[in-house]
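Protocol step 4 of 5: obtain the predicted structure for the target chain.
Materials: sequence only (see below). No template structures provided, no constraints applied. The aim of this step is simply to have a reference model before the mutagenesis design in step 5. Sequence pasted as it appears in the construct record:
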Amino acid sequence: MHLDQALVFYRQDAGPATAENADARFTFTWLVALFAYAIPPSVPPIDAMVEIFSLVKGIETVLHSTMLWVASGPFAPMLARAFDAEGNPNPYSAASSSYAFGNQMSSTTSNAIAVYDLPEGMDFGLNHLDFMLGMHSMLPDERRTCVLILAELKQLYNQIVQTQNQCGMSNILCFPKQDSTHFSQLLKRRSPQALIVLAYYTVLLDLLDARWWIRGWGRSVLTDILGSLGDEWKSWVEWPVQTVLMKQQSQASFGGDVGLDAAMVL
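Step 4 output (structure tokens):
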């Protein structure tokens, strides 16, 4: 109820960002994204994930209009990594300050994702998906979209490996950084290639599963993907299924015992 009321008030104040409201706008968008994970979805998990992608896009939109004010305000220490030694925004991505902020959002538990938490074989699986995208017929624009999202997923995985325990949870939550509109459309249409790429993202999402507000998301989305894929495609997600679902067959998610359900689907 409070979230609904807050969203109404936020939309009513739809004017331009100012120095006075920049901190509130920036913080509010992050809180909404975290609430989106914490509240059980009312739509199928794949569609709920699409809505999350839209929220992430909204975070970056707000960031572009507020970053300079936020970076010089009370949140400045959290955003320090987003700027270079001369104080200029990091050219890698304006959303880097959003990542830095997100790494501070949960102070009760460590936000770091240790390299040893990554399951073995993900790099091999991700590289194998290039072959998958090339061997099946797709419209050129659809293939290009999946290739771009897959490349970003590989980059995210490599970043987690290279930075070891310096990688924060928001690096995973703020995926994808690029415009996800076309990819989301493919997911809504249940394009098998897009679903398989999303299946590998659930492996990284599952690394955050110890946090109460996101618990079960990776398993739930992956189970929905299994139910949406034809039998000829399921071999491409065997590794995510073994990594995310089969390890916790006895644990219930917010949709039931998804590990057992997944085994039945396979």
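Step 4 remarks: Residues 82-110, 250-266 have pLDDT under 50 and may be disordered. DSSP finds twelve helices and no strands in the chain.
Proceed to step 5.
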